[in-house]
């Protein structure tokens, strides 16, 4: 099993380089870093290759034995210019990241496939794999949509990201995960929630700011873990509204997620 990563959404109020010692103090040895926002005007920390902030982050990574597992969030919209993401990919490669989270906001599927293919080509020299995330309020809404897109572009560095909350809220099942080719699964994000979805007006708020610790809700997390390839990269993405202290929040998330993983061992 690879190192459990702290998804940046869990502690989005803390950016690099401070994110690194926070993660280490909470017990994480891997993190994701949000270099780009998934929405116009959203929170992001746009490190650039060679910058003092990135060098400081690298020094703290070495001092605390923390690696960067992934960068996020690359957004494909109707007006996206693929080359605009080259600086983020360069920074990600300098940080040692291996994966990139992709969100899709363009309803034109043919254009999405074309641009995602071009994005894969841009990412390939940097050693980055692209993981397409699905969520119910975006055009790539379900597991099947993400698999269809990845299948259509036929790139060796294109995969699907499975977020446990998005899987269930989009009507997906563990059986559906087990039925797809495991080679399509690039990474998985863990959290928990009540099995009963909030009203449609609350779906986005739940996802972005009000999840539960693994084991506190009703999502079939143990079954999901059992259906996954054993070496799939895992991260904990738990924006926990009730805990306002970022370090304490990260520690609670790590402890709960490790208990879940130990129960699955």
From TrEMBL:
Q: Which residues form the Xylose isomerase-like TIM barrel domain?
A: 22-250
Does this UniProt record's set of keywords contain DNA repair? no
Pfam families assigned: AP_endonuc_2
Q: Can the keyword Isomerase be found in this entry's annotation?
A: yes
Q: Which GO terms describe its molecular function?
A: isomerase activity
> Cross-referenced PANTHER family, in alphabetical order?
BLL3656 PROTEIN (PTHR12110:SF48), HYDROXYPYRUVATE ISOMERASE (PTHR12110)
Q: What is this protein called?
A: Xylose isomerase domain-containing protein
């Amino acid at each position: 099993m690879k190192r459990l990563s702290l998804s940046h959404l869990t502690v989005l109020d803390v950016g690099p380089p401070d994110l690194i010692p926070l993660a280490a103090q909470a017990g994480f040895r891997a993190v994701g870093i949000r270099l780009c926002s998934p929405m116009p005007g959203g929170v992001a920390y746009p490190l650039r290759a060679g910058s003092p902030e990135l060098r400081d982050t690298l020094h703290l990574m070495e001092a605390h034995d923390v690696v960067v597992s992934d960068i996020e969030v690359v957004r494909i919209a109707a007006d996206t210019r693929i080359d605009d993401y080259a600086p983020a990919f360069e920074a990600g490669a300098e940080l040692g990241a291996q994966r990139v989270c992709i969100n899709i906001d363009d309803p034109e599927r043919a254009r999405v496939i074309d641009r995602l293919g071009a994005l894969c080509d841009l990412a390939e020299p940097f050693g980055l794999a692209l993981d397409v995330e699905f969520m119910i309020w975006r055009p790539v809404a379900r597991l099947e949509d993400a698999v269809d897109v990845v299948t259509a572009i036929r790139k060796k560095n294109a995969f699907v990201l499975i977020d446990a909350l998005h899987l269930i809220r989009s009507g997906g099942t563990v059986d559906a995960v087990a039925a797809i080719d495991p080679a399509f699964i690039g990474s998985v994000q863990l959290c928990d929630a009540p099995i009963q979805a909030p009203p449609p007006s609350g779906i986005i708020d739940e996802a972005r700011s009000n999840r539960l610790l693994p084991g506190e809700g009703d999502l079939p997390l143990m079954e999901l873990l059992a259906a996954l390839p054993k070496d799939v990269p895992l991260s904990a993405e738990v924006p926990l509204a009730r805990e306002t202290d970022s370090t304490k929040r990260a520690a609670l998330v790590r402890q709960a997620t490790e208990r879940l993983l130990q129960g699955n061992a």
